[in-house]
Every structure is written in structure tokens, then in C-alpha cells.
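# nightly structure sweep
# worker-07 picked up a monomer target from the shared queue
# config: single-sequence mode, recycle default, output format = C-alpha cells
# input follows
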Amino acid sequence: MLATPARFARLATAGFCSLVLLASSARSAPGPGDHLQRSVQLMQQGNLASAEAEARLALDDPASEPVALALLGSIRLQQQNYEEGTEFLERAIRENPGLVGARLNLAQAYDFLGKHARAEVLFREALAQAPDNPNARLGLVRLEARKGNHPEALALARPLEEQLRMSPDGLLLLAECYAGAGERAKAGSLVDDWNRLEAVPRDWTVRFALALSRGGLNPSGIEVLERVKREGLANFDVVFNLAGFYLLEDDLGKASQNYELAVRFDDQSVPALKQVAAIADKRGELEKALAFLIRAKLEAPEDAEVLLSFGTVALRLDLIEDATKALERALELRPGHRSTRYWLGTARGTARQYEAALELYQSILDENPEDAQMQYAVGSVYYLSVAFEDAIRHLTESCRLDPDQLLSPYYLAMIAQKQGRNEDAIRMFGEILESHPEHALSYEGLAASQVKTRQYDEARRNFETAIRLNPQSARANYQFGQLLVRMGLREEAKHQLAAAKGLREEEEKAQLVKTLLNPH
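# output follows
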């Protein structure tokens, strides 16, 4: 842990009481004791230069020298001269091992400087010398908690628990220890104590809520932060962390509300903008996701993760050129990144750049030939480019690797249909529908092959089912209309063909692209 001026100000203050006692005990010596007492008083007033002068006057007397060294050490710590401060304190306890205050200040200094092993030795020595010293005990509690020894920390903290429940840092320490030890009920009981505190800094409240959340008490963390919001004291950190807690609870609505509030507090926060976009994406609100990703991209134009997210959303909104540019740059920033290669391959395929798509997909497949999804992806591009034999090879391998999937068998059946093997296609579509009875595209395919084998009544039933499951299918409506014409039902045919009119051409290819965008 890095030392800061504020931390060492608290450190020196914590040691004043013990140093005052030490100085007072030396007052029986005529001159030096007075110098020590005045040095302590001047330190408390913040007059460090004069305090040092008084302490140095006491150095000449062997009886007062250890306390004077301890005072000089404390002064140096306040001046952020940590090396010299710890040297003075080390000398002090060497010359008088009984100086509990000096030992304790030195332990706290080493703790804040990150020299935890030495700090632990000194804290234990101080506690052995003064078993009732709360600072020595508390120092050990913090060290054990930092090491993850939460049951040991709680055992040490037991005599201090009532005192710890009266301050924000004490309650935070208890929350971390109870949560770490799996004592969730006791951790939750601290919320009432926290709510009784007055004028608690918001950053402490956030840390307390995070400690509860890490201990599996998300609802308690939410309660603490929602109270801050109700009191009108929310800031970016409060609502951003509150949003994260709601996300863990899978409450996407409240998570999004709080992330959006975080954006209002800081409209340049890329993490908050990304989270709003991610939730909108998950909820199918692609336009909203894109709007927030555009803002994130403006703030962080070279953030590969933002570019990837923007590219995937833009792709699903048919903004192919924008998506491609973003994905290309994302791949330049993270060469070889698997997900970026996949999405860029999908963008290439959507733009009918099949060779470029195959190159990207194949590079992923080469790294893991046992990836059923990538076997499907490569096969699907071959299908789009009418390279049916290559498509069959990869789609069949995909089925072998994952027999329970839907898409590879479907496109194998479609290939059979396109190659004129309609009896095979009918059998294959039938097998798919046995395990996926709600798959509209398989009903379409089955009906189309039945039309070609003149099984008109069966085809009509399957077209009707396909349209019921997917009323927006241009292909199903159109092919059903054509079937009705063959059957001589011209009025019904007219209605079906009108329903298909205006819907996009080559819907089959568009549907395949959608399956690549959302393969699961």
C-alpha cells in the first residue's frame, strides 16, 4: 500500500497519546523532560520545526534520548520523510525496548509503507508489552484481514468490537472480516450500525457496500447505497456501484437506470457508457446501445473493446460500412483477438466478401478444429458462396462435434434441397422438427421440398405452420402463394402474394447472416 500525506497525518496523530505518556514519564528529569513535553505540545499544534528543536535539546541526556528519538521519528513521518523517520524509531526501540509508543508508531509506519512482515512483528511485540493497547491489537487485525485470515482477525478484534461498531473504518473492517469468514448474518447486522452514523463520507459508504456485496450480501449493499440516494447525496461512485449490484441481481432495468445516472454525473465516463450500451444490447434495444457506443467511441476512439461492441451492434443494424471500419481498427489494436476476427468475418460475409470472411473464420478454426461453432461458420460461408461440397464437409463435422445443434443440420437439409435431393431434404427437415418442433424455417424448407415432390396438402399444412410461427417471412408467404396458385385457389393465393410483396429479396441469405450474428 502506498503511503500518502493524509495517511501519515493520521499515523502521527495515533501515536501522540503514547508519546505524551512517554514524555510525561521523563519529566522527573529536570531539563530534558521539559523539552520532551514542549516538543509533544508543539507537534500537536503543527509546529514541527520548533518541536524538532525541543526534541534535539533532549538528545544529550541518555535518560531522555530514546523518547527524543521517538519524537524525532514521528516528526519525520509527518514531514513525509519516511526513511529517516523509521530510522529514528528503530534507534529509539533499540535503546529502550520498552517504548511501546515508539514500537507502535514504527509498526504503523511500516504497515503504510507496505513492509507488512516487519510491521506484524512490531505489532505483536507491542501487544505483548501492552495487551490492552487498542492500536496494537487493531494493527494486527488489519494485517490478518489483509492476508485473508478473517477468522484470526475476528478473534483478535473481539475485545474491540463494540468500539469498532462506532466508526466507519471500524465497521468497514468488521464487514470485510465477517464477509470473508462466511458469517453473513453478522455482516448484515452491521447495516443498522452504519445507518446510525452521521456525516459518513460517501467513499466510505461505497467501500462498506462493496464489502457487503463481496460477502454475498448484495441486497444489503443495495440498501446502503439506496439510502444515500434517498438523502440526495448520490455521486458518480455511488450510482455506478449501485448499478453494478443491480446487475449482479440480474435487475437490468435498475442497473441501466443507475448507469445512466452515472453518465449524467460524468458524461465522459467510458465504463458507464459501455455498461448502458451492454444492457441495452442484452435487452434487444440496439438503437439505444448504438447511441451510447457512439458517445463512448468519441471519448475513447482507440479503445478496442468499445470498437468491437460498436461494430457488433452496428452490424446487427445493417450499418455494414460503419461496423467494418470499427472492427478493422479493433483488430489492428488487438491483432489476433478471436472475437474481433469472428465479427469482422461476419461483416465480410454480410457484405458478400466471402473469401475475406473465410480467411478470418478459417484462421480461428485452425486454432481449434474441434470448435463446432466455427465449423458451422466456415460451412455457412461456403453455403452462401454456393460451394456446396465444402459446405457439406464443414457442416457435417459441426454436427459430429455437437449433435444437439440446430443450424448445421438445417443448412445441410437446405443444400440437399438446392441440389434437387428433395426426398433427402424432406427426411432431414423431418428429423430436425422432431427435436425442434417450433423451428419455422424447417417447416418452410420441408414444405418447399414437398411442393417439388407434389405433396401439396402436406406442403400447405407446413407452410401454414411456418407462417404462424414467423408471419414476417417473405419466402414462406410467397412460396405458399405459389402453392395456392398450383392448387387452383386463386383468391387465397392473391392474399398470400400480397402479404409477401415488399418484403426483402434473398431473405434466406439475410436469415443466415442473422444466425451468424446470434448463433445460439
